Each structure stands twice: as structure tokens, then as C-alpha cells.
Amino acid sequence: MDLIYANDPLEGLYDQVLVRYGEIGLKGKNRHVFEDRLVRNMQKALAGLPPRKINRTFGRMFVPLDGDAREVLPRLQRVFGIVSLSPVVTVGRDLDEIKEWALKLAHGHGGSFRVDVRRADKSFPQSSIEMDRLLGAHLLKEYPHLHVDLEHPELTVSVEIRPEGTYMYSRTWPGPGGLPLGSSGRGILLLSGGIDSPVAGWMMMKRGLELMPLHFHSPPFTSERSKEKVLDLCRVLASYAGSISLHLCHFTEVQKAIHRECPADLGVIIMRRMMMRIAAQTAFAKGALALVTGESLGQVASQTIESISVISQASPLPILRPLVGMDKDKIVDQARLIGTYETSILPFDDCCTLFVPRHPQTRPQLSQVEKAEEPLAIAELVQEAVDKTEVIEIGG
After folding, report:
1. d(C-alpha 28, C-alpha 87), whole Å
2. End-to-end distance of the chain based on CA atoms, in angstroms?
3. Which ranges constitute the DSSP H helices of 168-264?
4. Count of CB atoms within 10 A of residue 31's CB?
5. Is the domain of 212 the same as that of 331?
6. % of the chain beyond a pLDDT of 90
7. What pLDDT sits at residue 355?
8. Which of 50, 76, 95, 204 could form a disulfide with 209 if both were Cys (CB 3.0 to 4.6 A apart)?
9. Total domains in the fold of the chain
């Protein structure tokens, strides 16, 4: 943020942040529900800063500033539902005043520029095109070293003329977009320590799904450092969500039973089915309506279409797989973007790497797997794992 914010001629003069949202604007009569949720999430993101009232107009929201843009902007950048945001100065309708602020926005700039005026208030005497020309000519007159570039300008002097005010700015920061967190219900994220599942969780949060991560660990086979790695991943996700309830499931007895009682080549499939049963029971207890995984079709033996089909049938709840059609390099790119990659690649094993057979079954049949599961006390193992699950609250 500091590098992007550097050399801003209006630093300290901005009085509001203009917040734009996208998909919410396409909602019908329940649009206000999504807007209310977005406002609550923005207030949550700003917790700890001086309180302020977020104002709403059609298609825009405004967050008052008190010289604290550097504090406010990075927090709002992580709020799902926000497409972009700009620190603005609020001016009147007087043309001379608008011209004067345009000069301030361009002060110290020595390259190409363009003017972008949007006139939402149709009672304003000049049209958008007329204002573009007026302000552009004024800037060229006062700063003859500037030159116009409408396609790839180094500086854009932006003006939004709305009934409630005129807003001027020259910088825009992207937000994550999507829908406000919590507007699509609640789900359980099966969170490993790898690259994929944190990305899957982030993508579903972007669709408005509130997540409760569920991590399976198997002490003493998995270490405390492996557990800490998952906590760190949750801290990254919580920086977008505000807070997260991590569920740590004691999975040792389940894995030992599978290793002892079931064919080795079906061990991974049966383990995943047990995870789905435990996750579903956790979901029922927490009011969640779906499970989320980081599976990508064909990536490993348990993610062939046959394996996915057999694993899915162990869950009474829908399983959301946002990465199912993504290439690994795209998943890695997204992990880097959201900040989970460096933690995910730390070399600490999780329970999914235990007891992996040399030749796992890649095309299992449901009847074959169900027969292999018969020696297991499934209900008792699931209940024991659920009862031993530890909940850790992680703040954003």
C-alpha cells in the first residue's frame, strides 16, 4: 500500500473512500439484504479504528476518513463484495472549484493524462463529454508539460458528479469482488496443509459462503509444526473473513482402523469417505449446508472421476469443489495472490500423506469400497472423532 500510495499530492486531504460493488447491483428486490451484509462486513473490517457511519447511494458506498486512508484502504481491500475503491475529495458543484481540484490532483505529474467524468446527476449543466473537454483544456493550459493519452494514460483525473456530491480522485485500488461473506450461508472447508484447499476456501468465501475449516490431524504421526502450519493458513483466510472457527479433528484412531482392517489399495478412498462423514456430522451440528474441498479432477489418485463419485456418496450434503477444472499452475498463482502459498509449501506432513499405498486404486467401484469398509465400526469411529474435535477461534 505504501508503494502505491507514495507521492500522492492529496495525501491527508481525502475525506471519504468511494466503494464500488458489482454483482450486488444485479440483485432484484432483495438487493438491500446484500448491501446490508456488505456494510456490516465493512464495519467489521474497520473494527479498532474510530467509528464511522458508512453512507449508501445507488451503486456506491462512502466511508468517511479522518486522515487515516492508509489504515482504512488495506482493510477494505479484503472485504468480499467490494470490486474497487478510491480515496476521494468531496467538492461542490461549482465549476471553478472542480477545476481547482483537478489541478491539485495533477500537481507534480509530468507525463500523460486523461480526464474521466461521470455525470450521474443529470441536473448538472455540463454533460460528461463537455466536462472532459473543459477540465482537459484547463489542465493543459496550466500544466503545458502534460500531454493527453486516452488509451494508456499515466494519470487519470476522475470526477463523479452525483446528486449528493461531486467526488474527485486519481487512484483506484481493486477489491476481491464477489458477494459479501455470509450472504450465501455456511459451509465446512476440509482444510489440509497443502496448496489447494486454502484456495478453494477463499474462492467459496468470495461467493459469500461463510466457512468453518475442518482439519484432520493424527498425532503422534503428524507434528505440532504441521498443526501450526494450518493455524497460519487460517490466519490468512481470517484476514479476509474477519474471524474463523478452526475445527481440529483427532483422526488417529480412524486412520489406524483403516490401515488395520481395509485393503491397502483402497485406504485413501476409504479415508476420504470417513472425512466426508465426519465433516457432514460437524456441519449438521453447526448449521452448515455444504462441504468444500480443494479437489481438482485428475490431479491425484483420489481425484479421478470414479474416486470422486465414490467419495461423494459418503456425504449426505453437497460437496462444492471450486477448483475441479483448474490447472495446478493456476491454483498456485491464486495461492500466491491471496497469500497462502508460502505457508502451504512448508514441508510438514499432514494426515493425508500417512499410510499411502504404493499402488492406490484409481477406478474404485462403490460396491467394492462398501464391502471393504464392512470391518470398520463406522458410526463409532465418526462419533469419537467428532467428540474429540477441538475448536480454535482465529481473529482476522
Report:
1. 29
2. 18
3. 196-206, 224-241, 252-261
4. 13
5. yes
6. 81
7. 61
8. 204
9. 2
Alpha-helix runs per DSSP H in 46-94: 69-76
Higher pLDDT, 347 or 202: 202
Domain CATH code at residue 332: 3.40.50.620
pTM, to two decimals: 0.91
Residue 5 grid coordinates: 500510495
Q: Are strands 243-250 and 390-395 parallel, antiparallel or unpaired?
A: antiparallel
Write the CATH number for 163: 3.30.2130.30
The CA angle 204-207-211, to the nearest 5 degrees, is: 45
Residue 147 to residue 15: CA distance in whole angstroms = 29
Grid coordinates of 99: 477545476
| Residue-wise pLDDT tens digits, 208-266 | 999 999 999 988 888 888 899 999 999 999 999 989 999 999 999 999 999 999 999 99
C-alpha cell at 205: 468465501
Q: Which domain holds residue 97?
A: 2-174
Question: Is there a single domain that holds both residue 152 and residue 267?
Answer: no
Please list the alpha-helical segments (H only) found in 262-394. Answer: 267-286, 305-312, 328-338, 341-344, 366-373, 378-387
Q: How many residues does the chain have?
A: 396
Mean predicted confidence (pLDDT) in 78-89: 96
Q: Which of 176, 131, 163 is nearest to 59 (CA)?
A: 163
DSSP state of 268: H
Bigger pLDDT: 258 vs 353 = 258
304 pLDDT above the threshold of 70? yes
Domain boundary among 119, 147, 174: 174
What is the per-residue pLDDT for 49? Answer: 94
The string of pLDDT tens digits covering residues 116-128 is: 999 999 999 999 9
Q: How far apart are CA 212 and CA 373, in angstroms?
A: 28
Whether 179 maps to a domain, the answer reads no
Q: Which residues pair with 247 in a beta bridge?
A: 214, 391
18 forms bridges with which residues in the sheet? 62, 86
**Environment class of residue 125 by beta-carbon count within 10 Å: exposed (0-12), middle (13-18) or buried (19+)?**
exposed
CA atoms within 13 A on the CB side of 108: 8
